[in-house]
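Renewal narrative, Specific Aim 1. Our central claim is that a sequence can be written position by position from structural information alone. The example that follows is taken directly from our test logs and has not been curated for this report. It begins with the structure tokens describing the chain, in the order in which they were read.
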């Protein structure tokens, strides 16, 4: 399930969503905009960056990382990314904050002792989706986050509930956006089901919806091969760690079909060696 792209869409539709998870959000949260950036030399991919308005005095920049797989070097990477980006943009910001979103505490890296100062202070916020409470009592945009983490048995019922709720609580534009996000989540979560089965599950018709066509075309929502490559590199870095320059170069030569095949294959990778074997097979 490509949760990176789902959360990217969530943050695009509702940039203030990240602040609904925090106890003390900035007073001008409504004015923040969402961005996704790459920090080069070495290349880092930051899942999400929330930028304060440019027409005000320097404010705090918020970094967001969505982590659904165990990574024993996550905090090392996140703090390196955040510090480097903050260093290179110091004149624009007066502070930085980091938000790490986990499905549960079990996914968090085990050795956190070296980062005790950051993790025990007020600069890093760890969010565990399974501890946010009943999905029906949460703000609808936060509930969409939790929907990505629900068991398959519960997801269809709660998805239908969110569709009904959004039609009552949200504007027509927001409701349409929520419908598409719910569809995205459910089609990714139940990718083995046919179109008819997904339609029956949600009680709506997907045949003419843009999002269904996009998902069936395996990620062409970005519209460009660069978007697919960027997503694959980010997922690989989370899966097997930092990639050597020669491996990154090999990935840049892949066509769209090969990138999509790599997106499927990487789910079975457990080490950098698995990726290198896959690349050698493709090149030969």
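The sequence written for that structure reads:
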């Amino acid at each position: 399930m490509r949760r990176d792209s789902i959360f990217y869409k969530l943050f695009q539709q509702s940039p203030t969503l990240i602040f609904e998870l925090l106890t003390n959000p900035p007073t001008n949260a409504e004015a923040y905009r969402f961005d996704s950036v790459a920090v080069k030399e070495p290349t880092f991919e930051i899942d999400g960056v929330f930028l304060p308005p440019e027409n005000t005095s320097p404010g705090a920049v918020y970094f967001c990382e969505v982590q659904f797989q165990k990574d024993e070097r996550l905090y090392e990477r996140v703090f390196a990314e955040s510090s480097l980006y903050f260093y290179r943009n110091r004149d624009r910001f007066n502070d930085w904050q980091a938000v790490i979103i986990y499905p549960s505490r079990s996914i968090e890296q085990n050795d956190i002792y070296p980062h005790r100062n950051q993790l025990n202070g007020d600069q890093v916020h760890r969010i565990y989706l399974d501890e946010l409470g009943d999905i029906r009592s949460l703000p609808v945009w936060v509930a969409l986050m939790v929907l990505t983490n629900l068991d398959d048995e519960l997801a269809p019922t709660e998805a239908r509930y969110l569709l009904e709720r959004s039609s009552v609580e949200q504007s027509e534009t927001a409701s349409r956006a929520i419908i598409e996000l719910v569809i995205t989540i459910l089609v990714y979560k139940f990718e083995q089901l046919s179109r008819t089965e997904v339609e029956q599950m949600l009680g709506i018709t997907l045949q003419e919806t843009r999002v269904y066509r996009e998902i069936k075309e395996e990620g062409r929502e970005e519209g460009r091969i660069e978007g697919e490559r960027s997503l694959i590199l980010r997922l690989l870095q989370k899966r097997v760690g930092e990639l050597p320059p020669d491996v990154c170069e090999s990935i840049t030569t892949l066509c769209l079909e090969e990138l999509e095949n790599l997106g499927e294959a990487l789910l079975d990778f457990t080490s950098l060696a698995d990726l290198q074997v896959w690349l050698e097979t493709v090149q030969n």
